[in-house]
Design goal:
Strand order of the largest sheet: 1-2-3-4-5-7-6
Shape: globular
Radius of gyration: 15 Å
Strand content: 25-35%
Number of helices: 7
Number of strands: 7
Helix content: 25-40%
Order of helices and strands: EHHHHEEEHEHEEH
Structural class: alpha+beta
Largest sheet: 7 strands, mixed
Length: 165
């Protein structure tokens, strides 16, 4: 008998599990770029705690275990910045990432007034790019992360989240 994965708002008690999960999940990204100083790997536990307290943070749970997470916040210009989407490697490919993304998009649009969703991923991160395109994001530009990794910036209008839900 298996358990189902549930999506819910993260609580303060989830911060340490999110921190550990993020470290595990972003190892493969670091390997893609030969850079183990990428932002998600050097973020402190205190910083994760601050994000859980201040931002729109969702987790995927399998029983008591946090197996996925995503964070978002609305900026001054009405755009929602979504980031650090991660799913435990053993559960990737089962739609959990898309479910987390939809939960964050819904909350950011309905509760925080987001007009557009914006996220970024490394230019070599083909799996991430496939997911984001599948749920309606389009590349709108490039940037460089604080860690030096070339990034692709993707966006979609907030009203589009209904179509992908």
């Amino acid at each position: 008998m298996g358990m189902s994965v549930t999506i819910s708002v993260a609580t303060e008690q989830d911060a340490e599990q999110i921190f550990r999960l993020q470290y595990l999940c972003f190892q493969s990204e670091a390997a893609l770029y030969g850079n183990y100083r990428i932002d998600p790997l050097v973020q402190s536990l205190d910083s994760v705690r601050q994000e859980v307290a201040a931002d729109c943070v969702y987790v995927a749970r399998l029983g008591e275990e946090v197996v996925g997470s995503v964070r978002g916040r609305v900026t001054e210009d009405g755009s929602a910045s979504i980031g650090k989407l991660c799913v435990h490697p053993r559960l990737q490919g089962h739609g959990i990432g898309a479910r987390l993304l939809r939960a964050a998009e819904s909350a950011l649009a309905e509760q925080h007034g987001a007009k557009v969703f914006r996220l970024h991923t490394g230019h070599r991160s083909e799996g991430n790019l496939r997911l984001y395109r599948r749920v309606g994001y389009q590349a709108v530009g490039t940037s460089q992360g604080n860690d030096g990794v070339p990034m692709i910036v993707l966006e979609k209008p907030a009203e589009a989240y209904v179509a992908t839900a």
